[in-house]
Specification:
Blueprint: H1 2-13, H2 17-56, H3 60-80, H4 87-107, E1 109-120, E2 126-133, E3 138-144, H5 145-152, E4 158-167, E5 170-180
Parallel strand pairs: 3-5
Antiparallel strand pairs: 1-2, 1-4, 2-3, 4-5
Helix pairs in contact: 1-2, 2-3
Length: about 180
């Protein structure tokens, strides 16, 4: 997670388009790996709980069947590593990417802010804005491209921002919408 966090910081401060594309690719790979690890952990915990419950119920034959099935699955997975993706694997990858995108969208929060000041960032197409939340707390928001353009024209206006927390008092704006002029 810390490595991913550093990549997000680099992404907001990046000046070069090629470097930005490389960072976006690395962020995507990091997100896929984190999602894979989360899914694997969830599946492992569920399996352990199932095996424990079956053991407590005295159903050792069912436990043996589950463990044998898991062992076979692991062997098949080990055999398939390194082989090119087939039709089903391509569909699995697309499904996993869609789930990852949905997970990223779920990580986003939405807030209403008043834009106090907007300044250009170090890289082209990036802006940093000082905003105040409805509770009076101030934040610095980094946005890029179209969202940066929207935020640039929003000084003194009320905006709705879908954001991801970048650190103490800093947000990354995934989308910006002016709601009051």
């Amino acid at each position: 997670m810390e490595a991913r966090w550093e990549l997000e910081k680099q992404f907001c401060n990046c000046r070069d388009e090629k470097e930005t594309a490389k960072i976006e690719e690395n962020l995507s790979l990091a997100d896929r790996e984190l999602e894979w690890l989360r899914c694997r952990q969830t599946a492992t915990v569920a399996t352990v709980n199932l095996v424990a419950a079956l053991t407590n119920a005295g159903r050792t034959e069912d436990v043996k069947l589950i463990l044998d099935t898991l062992e076979e699955k692991q062997k098949k997975q080990d055999e398939n590593e390194g082989k090119p993706a087939g039709k089903n694997n391509g569909e699995d990858k697309k499904r996993k990417e869609d789930e990852k995108k949905k997970g990223q969208e779920d990580d986003l929060k939405t807030g209403i802010f008043i834009v106090k000041e907007v300044k250009p960032g170090k890289s082209e197409g990036t802006v940093w804005a000082k905003v105040a939340a409805e509770d009076g707390k101030e934040y610095k928001v980094c946005t890029k491209n179209g969202n940066a353009e929207t935020l640039s024209g929003a000084a003194g206006k009320k905006v709705r921002i879908r954001y991801r927390q970048m650190g103490e008092g800093k947000l990354y704006g995934a989308s910006v919408e002016i709601i009051q002029k």
